[in-house]
Write a structure and sequence with these properties.
The chain is of the alpha+beta class. It is 20% helix and 25% strand. It has one domain (16-77).
């Protein structure tokens, strides 16, 4: 197979609202912050602190998980109320 490993079958990526206070979410946010702060000028770091989305009702945290393991996170902020 010319140096490539077969990955085998993997489960689907499930995206759902998450809890910013969960240990795995806080850990991934911290790893992300450590990375961007080490490689990006401070004025261009737009990441939120771990736990911040939990304190802001206008922010929805989404988590991407495969087979229960956290692979990705993202946050959406409502900028303006939607029209009814």
């Amino acid at each position: 197979m010319s140096g490539r490993r077969a990955l085998g079958r993997v489960g689907p990526l499930e995206i759902a609202p998450g809890d910013a206070r969960a240990d795995d979410v806080r850990g991934l946010v911290q790893r992300h912050l450590d990375f961007v702060r080490a490689h990006t000028p401070p004025e261009f770091v737009f990441a939120v602190e771990a736990g911040a989305p939990a304190d802001d009702p206008g922010v929805t945290l989404l988590c991407g998980r495969r087979d229960g393991g956290l692979l990705a996170i993202g946050a959406l902020r409502e900028l303006a109320p939607t029209a009814s």
